[in-house]
Amino acid sequence: MKVLERRKDYICVEIYRTLFSIYGKVKCPLFYRTPFQLLISVILSAQCTDERVNKTVSGLFAKYPDSMALSEADVNEIEKIIKPIGLYKIKAKNIINAAKKLNEEFGGEIPETIEKLTELPGVGRKTANVIISHLFDGYGFAVDTHVNRVLNRIGIVNTHNPYKIEMLIMKLMSHESLGNFSLLLIMHGRNTCLARTPKCPDCAINNLCRKRL
Ligand code: SF4
User: Fold this and answer.
1) Could you give the domains of the chain?
2) Separation in Å, CA 152 to CA 6, 11, 147, 185
3) 18: CA distance to ligand 1 center in Å?
4) Residue 108 in 3-state DSSP?
5) What is the pLDDT of residue 84?
6) What are the angstrom distances between the C-alpha of 8 and each of 19, 86, 157?
7) Is 0.90 exceeded by the ipTM?
8) Is 202 one of the catalytic residues?
């Protein structure tokens, strides 16, 4: 590992330790009872708040609890149910087609790799990483807007390309901690390192941050 990366390695671990002391092991904010329901909730959460998704999926899962039921659903009915979460036309198609593909190609089971997950309609790399981190022992680093912003401000990364960020963090951190590290950074971005007005004087990791304002 290069010298600069070794330093980043140390900073990442310190950030993890500090944020963990505040937030602990962060629970998935999305409602689900089964891996399939997590998949659907994460697909629906694109450009929507977790709260709104949770309110909407309770009705959806009451009627379509598994991939078999959803794969046979009428798209117009699904559109009506999920309309409050936005982008409902494309999302309705995606979740029905994802359910069909799961049944036809994966025996109704959620695939365990990023490559296979991203074959499902509506599942990009970020979505796949969220699913992997919650279902398969934390081995997934999801880069959302908060993670992207916080890591750039601190100086751990110098790119807004989510794939490059993911690859670098995977080199710096132990795989078991990746999922929670992403969630800790999201919590920090939502509560302290706000997009417009970061609360730097109150920030618990300001001693590690290059951008400290
Ligand atoms: S010091 Fe400021 S910019 Fe740096 S992580 Fe904390 S809140 Fe964000």
Assistant:
1) 3-27+140-208 (1.10.1670.10), 35-135 (1.10.340.30)
2) 17, 13, 8, 12
3) 13
4) coil
5) 94
6) 16, 38, 9
7) yes
8) no
